[in-house]
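Worked example

This section walks through a single chain of length 164. The input is the sequence exactly as stored; nothing has been trimmed or padded.
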Amino acid sequence: MELFHKTTLICGCGNTLLGDDGFGPAVVERLETAYRDRLPPDAAALDVGTSIRELLFDLILSPVKPRRLIIVDAVDQPGRRPGEIFELRVEDIPAVKVHDFSLHQFPTVNLLQELMEHTGVEVHLVAVQIQEIPPEVRPGLSPPVAQAVERACEAVLALCRPEG
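Given that input, the structure is written out below as C-alpha cells.
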C-alpha cells in the first residue's frame, strides 16, 4: 500500500527465464543499482515479473494512487530493430502481445485503459524490440537487448521528471 503513495511507480515486467522477456526486470535491477542516486525519491521501481495483474487490481481499488505508472516490457513489433527502445501507447499494443499478456498474467489492454480513464493515473509503456523469446527456459538477454537496458533506464528517468 505504501508504494501507491509514491508519485511514480515503475514496474519491470517479464520472465527472466525466457531470454529477452526478462528485459523489464533487468531495467529495474539497473535502476536500483547504477541509477539509484538519479531515481527521484518519490519514485519506486519494482520487478513484478509476470504478476503485474494483481498489483494493478490493487492499484485500481486503492484510495491512494501514484500519479504516474511506467511499465517496462519487451515486445515483438514488426519493422523495429532488436534492442530499439520506444514508448508504446496502451491503445497501440499489438493484438498478438495482448494475448501474450494474458498468458503471462499481464493486464489486458482494457484494464490499463480503465486505470487511465477512471483513476487519472498516467500510464507509460517503455518497450524494447526483442531479438528472440526462446521456446524453452534460457535465461539471459540477447546482446542487442542487453545493450538497450541503459537507454531504457534513461527513458524511464526522463518520464519520472515532473514535466514527464
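What to look for: The chain has one domain: 2-160.
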